[in-house]
Specification:
This protein has about 575 residues and is an alpha+beta fold. It contains eleven helices and 33 strands. Helix 1 (about 345-375) runs antiparallel to helix 3, helix 1 packs parallel to helix 6 and helix 5 (about 445-460) packs across helix 6.
């Protein structure tokens, strides 16, 4: 892996207070709050790595220069020369970075002294200090020792650590497409899978935002946790380079002429843009940086924001320490569409509906158990001439006729139950919790059946015992994909079940179903989120510290809101 998710010549420090940019013959350290900038004369800069209190600079001469934010040199160290190499900095912990030569090297600030660690792998991602992620082919080894195997031989092309060191964003190449995966660093569980239209230009590590290029003059902000587009930044010139601070509040855009502009993207109702920073050395460094024009306000209308042109300054502005540019980014933020109100049944009606659904699951399971008896997949080990003779024959479809009466009775009971459901006018009606969940979360009919099968043992203890009998393996989880296939056999194809339980499917991607990968493949334990169980019962879910729902007595336009309130709500 020789690419970095972000710019190697334009970066914010970890605290977001400084912007570090490389010029052809110097390094510029610019404070976002407008305090005096620092300019350090350095030639042939190849890559930079910005941390909270220091900056590392790799030069084409094979030297690593360490600087404080006030421009003081801490030390210089020799590096293996490679014109294609870059520094990939860590996002948490002590300053550390990887130098992406043909032999990857982890560089760690060990109490002021640098340690160089060689790592043998196809891809290496620094996490913190001496901790790193190591990938060989499709096999990814995490710092905890957990192993994550990428699907179908995908290979990591680039990666970085997000959310204060808890998750790994990996861009993998598979069948000619670039897939972004969010992997939990503690367990190796794939939390999110996205198909990105282009490779991210910059990443806000703490916030989990990605900046993508839609066009040469158009950037898009993507929330990686939820896979949602947050808005678009339109620039009046082609974008040459981009950086975003770790909290996702400031966007730095370098234009082809060399000027850099700062755009505040933190608020939904009003975004601001500051004038550009000249980076060619003709600015006066004696005074603080001050904006020379009022901010550009971007008002958000009902569905899409509309840019407002800056008004001319009535008073003469002081001579700035940088030159303004003619291009102004316009931040366009999408709004959320409210869901239409819908009638809801009472808790008693919801529980009656849930009992009918659980009865269906129990009869599906009964039919599966009777079929296993009939084929002798469930039977005594010594019934045949050879050990497990009947079970082996059942697994390959060569057995049957041992429990025909039980199987016929189970099918008859299920058919009678389904006739009763067909006569029930309110069954799975729009007012029922299950229909509301399907509409809200985009669940298919197959996904609903799978959800019920996984949720049933948590709602009725008798179902759990039936699942144990059907699984016939005390080492298996209570519910796994293979058990779901057995229960829904004859109703849903096993490949359709696998597709609904894929990390990109709504069931897993939205956190409705959690797959605990203690066992491989179809034997990973499947669990339903407690919020979904409460909603199936028609009860208010326990959301912990989430916002409380309050009825509004006025329109949104009548509210006086502090900056950032709407953005945080979205």
């Amino acid at each position: 892996m020789r690419t970095i998710l972000g710019s190697s010549l334009l970066q914010f420090t970890r605290d977001g207070r400084h912007l570090v940019l490389a010029e052809p013959d110097a390094l510029v350290i610019e404070a976002v709050d407008g305090t005096p900038r620092r300019r350090v004369e350095l030639s042939a800069i190849q890559s930079i790595a910005a941390f909270t209190d220091q900056v590392w600079v790799a030069t084409r001469a094979g030297t690593l220069v360490r600087l404080t934010l006030d421009g003081r040199t801490i030390g210089e160290h020799a590096l293996q020369g490679d014109v294609a190499a870059t520094l990939i900095p860590t996002t948490v912990g002590a300053p550390a970075a990887m130098w992406t030569t043909s032999q990857p090297t982890i560089i760690v600030d060990d109490l002021g002294a640098l340690a160089f660690l060689d790592v043998d792998a196809d891809a290496v991602v620094p996490v913190a200090g001496r901790r790193y992620v190591r990938a060989v082919g499709a096999r990814v080894t995490l710092p905890t020792g957990a192993i994550c195997t990428l699907v179908n031989g995908a290979r990591i092309a680039s990666a970085c650590v997000l959310f204060d060191g808890t998750s790994l964003l990996a861009l993998a190449d598979h069948q000619g497409r670039r897939t972004a995966m969010l992997i939990a660093l503690s367990s190796g569980r794939i939390q999110q899978t996205l198909m990105l239209p282009s490779e991210p230009l910059a990443i806000a590590a703490r916030r989990g935002l990605a900046v993508l290029r839609q066009a040469p003059d158009r950037l898009e902000l993507i929330d990686l946790r939820f896979g949602r587009s947050l808005g678009v930044v339109v620039v009046d010139a082609d974008v040459d380079d981009v950086a975003i601070d770790p909290d996702g509040t400031q966007l730095a855009i370098r234009l082809p002429g060399g000027a850099v502009e700062l755009a505040s993207i933190g608020e939904r109702m009003a975004a601001t843009v500051r004038a550009g920073i000249a980076v060619h050395g003709d600015a006066d460094d004696s005074g603080p940086v001050e904006p020379v024009a009022p901010p550009v306000a971007v008002a958000c209308e009902a569905e899409r924001a509309r840019a407002v042109e800056p008004e001319p300054d009535e008073q003469a502005a002081p001579e700035p320490s940088f030159r303004p540019t003619a291009a102004w980014p316009r931040v366009v933020v999408d709004s959320l569409d409210p869901r239409p109100p819908r009638a809801r049944v009472t808790r008693i009606e919801a529980l009656d509906e849930l009992d009918r659904e659980i009865r269906s699951v129990m009869l599906w399971t009964l039919q599966a158990i009777a079929g296993a008896w009939d084929s002798r997949r469930l039977g005594y080990g010594n019934e045949g001439t050879h050990p497990y003779e009947h079970e082996v024959a059942a697994l390959v479809g060569m057995n049957g006729g041992f429990a025909t009466d039980y199987l016929a009775a189970a099918r008859s009971a299920l058919a009678a139950h389904e006739r009763e459901l067909a006569l029930h006018a309110a069954y799975r009606g729009s007012a029922m919790p299950l229909a509301e969940l399907a509409d809200e979360l985009g669940l298919s009919a197959t996904a609903i059946d799978i959800l019920l099968v996984i949720a049933a043992p948590a709602l009725h203890g008798e179902v759990a015992r039936m699942y144990g009998i059907l699984a016939n393996d005390p080492g298996r989880a209570l519910v796994d994909q293979r058990l779901v296939e057995q229960i829904l056999e004859g109703r849903v194809n096993r490949h359709d079940i696998a597709a609904e339980l894929h990390p990109r499917s709504p069931l897993v991607r939205l956190g409705i179903v959690e797959a605990r990968a203690r066992r491989p493949g179809p034997f990973a334990a499947l669990e339903i989120d407690g919020v979904i169980l409460a909603r199936l019962r028609g009860e208010p879910p326990e959301l912990g510290t989430a916002p409380i729902v309050r009825d509004a007595d006025r329109e949104l336009g009548e509210l006086e809101l502090a900056p950032g309130v709407c953005e945080r709500a979205i």
